[in-house]
From TrEMBL, chain A:
<dbReference type="Pfam" id="PF00497">
    <property type="entry name" value="SBP_bac_3"/>
</dbReference>
<feature type="domain" description="Solute-binding protein family 3/N-terminal">
    <location>
        <begin position="70"/>
        <end position="294"/>
    </location>
</feature>
<keyword id="KW-0813">Transport</keyword>
<dbReference type="InterPro" id="IPR018313">
    <property type="entry name" value="SBP_3_CS"/>
</dbReference>
<feature type="signal peptide">
    <location>
        <begin position="1"/>
        <end position="21"/>
    </location>
</feature>
<dbReference type="InterPro" id="IPR001638">
    <property type="entry name" value="Solute-binding_3/MltF_N"/>
</dbReference>
<keyword id="KW-0732">Signal</keyword>
From TrEMBL, chain B:
<feature type="transmembrane region" description="Helical">
    <location>
        <begin position="49"/>
        <end position="71"/>
    </location>
</feature>
<keyword id="KW-1003">Cell membrane</keyword>
<keyword id="KW-1133">Transmembrane helix</keyword>
<feature type="transmembrane region" description="Helical">
    <location>
        <begin position="15"/>
        <end position="37"/>
    </location>
</feature>
<keyword id="KW-0813">Transport</keyword>
<dbReference type="InterPro" id="IPR035906">
    <property type="entry name" value="MetI-like_sf"/>
</dbReference>
<dbReference type="Pfam" id="PF00528">
    <property type="entry name" value="BPD_transp_1"/>
</dbReference>
Automatic annotation (TrEMBL), chain C:
<keyword id="KW-0472">Membrane</keyword>
<keyword id="KW-1003">Cell membrane</keyword>
<dbReference type="InterPro" id="IPR043429">
    <property type="entry name" value="ArtM/GltK/GlnP/TcyL/YhdX-like"/>
</dbReference>
<feature type="transmembrane region" description="Helical">
    <location>
        <begin position="21"/>
        <end position="42"/>
    </location>
</feature>
<dbReference type="Pfam" id="PF00528">
    <property type="entry name" value="BPD_transp_1"/>
</dbReference>
<protein>
    <submittedName>
        <fullName>Amino acid ABC transporter permease</fullName>
    </submittedName>
</protein>
<keyword id="KW-0812">Transmembrane</keyword>
């Protein structure tokens, strides 16, 4: 019965695909908001941002953005509740997206004036330094190597490598309990290098996307996923009944907003915006409506570093 | 800062990884390829259809997609917890088996008609004819394409690096992400692959010479 | 020859029974294998109707269509690039000047021996990190160009010697002989193999997924990574859809190759048309010295893999 329905749906899908690429149902494919989706009624509401008017900055990036009337922001697209783009509605959501929006509002740009651009980790530096994006918000750890190429405002969030496990997992309570367990992460990522050290005795699995690892965790191919806790919280929030974050970060990854290295004025403006948003509570609200849904409590962000 | 000296143990692991996944998936591909070739020339229609479907499907699917299948679909059908190496070898072995099957089949077709006819007139069965008369003679014509197929397999094993198998592409990726210049990294990886591929073509050249018969 | 095979006799009564038994057993085994797979997948919810319903959404379809366009775009670039490079390298390898010949040979051998992925990744990281499309197109052109060069060289060598001699006797220059006499005939003779190699190129565009080029496989992967269906990610359904599209595209191209080969066999130019059977032939082309001979060797073999008109029961 179920199989027949499946076959019918598949046939319809394939036929429709071959017939025409457009048309078809509108809206978001997949599971419908069930109360824990950002923006849903009984979930903590997303903050509204009041857009500043008459912002004047002596910043080349800002002036260019004003001229074109649009702010180009780089972000990630495949991290639920963090930097996410719904592939059927093209709507962006998540904590990093909210940070980008609140900064944009303080710079005098409405949400409608934002042009989003998906930029992957490998090409972040070149996208920023070549001016393809005005600024970038996407799990971007501030470090000295990157500071040589781009500028950083913030940090706006203190992330740290952590472990994501299945909800019924009791044996894994931190990196020291990984002996003989299978741990998945992205090839070459820092937490993976750490976990690979012989003292932990973990088996590692290296795939191309975090969702690959999460899928393997759900299908019991691996026992844990490691990367920044922010990313893991996002997946835990997406799969609330199935996954949880262990909550013992073993590295420190301060996230910053990446921007042009020489644009000190814009950097200061973003720093000020972040400080203000933390103070007036919109930052906390944004957290609670996104990553907070994973059950991980809110923590004050680290102080902004002006270097 | 010499990338090879600094990370020689990783490089060695990658090299051995490439060699071992090539070896394991070659065996899978050879066995499967022979069996499916047998299917394709057999007197039993369903087996022939299966062989045709197998070859058509596998030959027209990108290998990357096959890796996705073995990584995410196969463990769901069999059982969870299969190692990436096994799954990667399966993907490579299955993919390559379709090419080997076709090489073997055209090899079978090059054996003169009279041979099989003579075998049959001696009362040999299909399996006997194939095993004792046709395949040994087909080996000679199959060897050159087989050598190329195995070299292609070696090169294709690089894709396994993107699916959690320790091999040379993984080393290249990690090294370039650690900030080493791509040129020396590329150079050493290329040298390593050349060693493997030259070894394979060398072995096959020896084999070909051994099996050379004046006809 | 009729449909009877050389490998087995027309079956007698006992053999008919035996073959039937085998047929039933074989069919049962195959059906069982498929059933078990489907049941196992469906048990775990991978085949639920909702998993397939995502493809009914216009946003998802647009994504797939965009990916398909990106794939075809890079395939077009790589096809043009590899053919241009192939002609260039083939001519260089047939040159009368030793240094040119050596250079071309070295180039071909080098890029043919290195995995395509390694080349693509190096071009991407080293030169074109911001332009993954060009990195992919260049990587594909480099590798496939070398393969096409060998195919073309084999084609040129297959043109009867008299043609070249006649052209020289007419007072044509070396370039004229190559461009107006040899190459056109080589291309014609090798067209099926060339197209078969284009199928390989088409399949290899999926490597773009590793350098983040948003081609078909990548966009499908993005869909499976970002759409949660029944609390799972739709890996199985997206892989099936992507696979179907790839197989369909490749089969269409292969069919073109076979059609050209059949048409070419009617012409009587004295130059055999290479078989479109890529596995043995094209793989042999990939394989160095043994190759150039092997490609053409196929012409002498009465029934090669693809044409299906030869002996052997390979007619399904």
């Amino acid at each position: 019965m179920m199989l027949r329905k499946t076959a019918a749906a598949a046939a319809v899908a394939v036929l429709a695909l071959t017939a025409t690429a457009c048309g078809g149902k509108e809206g978001s494919a997949g599971d419908k908001p069930s109360g824990v989706q950002p923006g849903a009624t009984n979930a903590p509401a997303l903050p509204q941002y009041i857009v500043a008017t008459d912002v004047k900055l002596d910043s080349p990036t800002f002036k260019k953005a004003k001229e074109r009337g649009k702010l180009v922001i780089g972000a990630k697209a495949d991290q639920p509740y963090l930097g996410f783009e719904d592939q059927s509605t093209k709507e962006r959501s998540g904590f990093d997206i909210e940070i980008a929006k609140m900064v944009a509002a303080d710079l005098g740009f409405t949400v409608g004036q934002i042009e989003w651009k998906t930029v992957d980790s490998a090409t972040r530096e070149t996208a920023i330094s070549s001016g393809q994006v005005d600024y970038y918000v996407g799990t971007y750890t501030i470090n000295d190597k990157r500071k040589a190429q781009v500028g950083f405002a913030g940090p706006y969030y203190q992330a740290g490598a952590d472990l994501l496990v299945r909800k019924d997992e009791t044996a894994i309570t931190g990196p020291d309990t990984l002996k003989g367990k299978k741990v998945c992460s992205i090839k070459g990522s820092t937490p993976l290098q750490e976990i690979k050290k012989p003292q932990y005795g973990a088996e590692t699995s290296e795939l191309g996307k975090y969702s690959d690892c999460v899928q393997q965790l759900l299908t019991k191919q691996v026992d844990a996923v490691t990367t920044d806790d922010s990313v893991l919280k996002g997946y835990a929030a997406q799969n609330p009944g199935k996954l949880k974050v262990v909550g013992k970060p073993f590295t420190k990854e301060p996230y910053g907003v990446g921007l042009n290295k020489d644009d000190k004025v814009l950097r200061e403006a973003i720093n000020k915006s972040l400080e203000g948003r933390v103070k007036d509570g919109t930052y906390k609200k944004a957290y609670e409506a996104t990553l907070g849904l994973s059950g991980s409590a809110y923590a004050e962000p680290p102080a902004v570093v002006r270097y | 800062m010499n990338v090879l000296l600094d990370h020689f143990s990783d490089f060695r692991d990658g090299f051995l990884g490439t060699v071992s996944i090539t070896a394991v998936s070659s065996v899978i591909a050879l066995v499967l390829g022979l069996v499916v070739a047998g299917f394709r020339v057999s007197p039993v229609p369903p087996l022939r259809w299966f062989g045709t479907a197998w070859v058509t499907l596998l030959r027209n699917t990108p290998l990357t997609l096959l890796f996705l299948v073995t990584t995410f679909v196969v463990p769901e059908i069999l059982f969870p917890g299969m190692s990436a190496f096994v799954l990667g070898s399966l993907a490579l072995g299955f993919y390559t088996s379709s090419f080997i099957c076709e090489a073997v089949r055209s090899g079978i077709n090059t054996v003169p008609l009279g041979q099989a006819e003579a075998a049959r007139s001696l009362g040999m069965s299909f399996t006997q004819t194939l095993r004792m008369i046709v395949l040994p003679q087909a080996t000679r014509t199959v060897l050159p394409p087989l050598s190329s197929i195995l070299i292609a397999l070696t090169k294709n094993s690089a894709i396994a690096g993107a699916f959690s198998v320790t091999e040379l592409f993984g080393w290249q990726k990690v090294m370039s992400e650690e900030g080493y210049s791509i040129v020396p990294v590329f150079f050493w990886v290329a040298v390593a692959y050349l060693i493997v591929t030259f070894t394979i073509s060398g072995v096959f050249r020896v084999l070909e010479r051994r099996l050379e018969v004046a006809r | 020859m009729s449909s009877s095979s050389v490998l087995f006799d027309a079956p007698g009564p006992r053999a008919v029974v035996r073959n039937r038994v085998f047929a039933v057993l074989g069919a049962l085994a195959i059906v069982a294998l498929i059933t078990v797979s489907v049941v196992r997948l469906s048990d775990k919810g991978h085949l639920a109707p909702e998993m397939w319903d995502i493809f009914n959404y216009s946003g998802i379809r647009e994504n797939i269509a965009d990916g398909l366009v990106a794939t075809l775009k890079v395939f077009g670039l790589a096809a043009v690039g590899s053919l241009a490079l192939g002609v260039l390298l083939a001519v260089a390898r047939l040159s009368d000047h030793r240094p040119v010949r050596l250079l071309a040979t070295g180039f071909i051998e080098l890029f043919r021996s290195i995995p395509l992925l390694i080349t693509i990744y190096a071009v991407w990281v080293g030169l074109l990190i911001d332009h993954s499309m060009w990195a992919l197109a260049i990587g594909l052109s480099l590798y496939n160009g070398c393969v096409q060069a060998e195919v073309l060289r084999a084609g040129v060598n297959a043109v009867p010697k008299g043609q070249r001699e006649a052209a020289y006797a007419l007072g044509m220059s070396k370039t004229q002989v190559m461009t107006t006499v040899l190459l056109p005939q080589a291309v014609r003779a090798m067209l099926p193999t060339i197209i078969s190699q284009l199928v390989v190129t088409l399949k290899d565009t999926s490597l773009g997924y590793i350098i983040l080029y948003p081609e078909l496989l990548n966009s499908v992967r993005l869909i499976s990574a970002t759409t949660l269906v029944n609390g799972q990610y739709p890996y199985v359904s997206t892989i099936v859809v992507a696979g179907t599209i790839y197989v369909a595209m490749c089969l269409a191209l292969s069919a073109l190759a076979t059609w050209i080969e059949k048409r070419g066999r009617r012409a009587k130019s004295g130059i055999g048309i290479a078989p479109a059977a890529e596995p043995a032939a094209a793989a042999a082309v990939l394989g160095g010295e043994a190759a150039s001979g092997a490609v053409l060797a196929h012409e002498d073999t009465p029934g090669t893999a693809a044409d299906g008109t030869g002996r052997g029961p390979a007619k399904d």
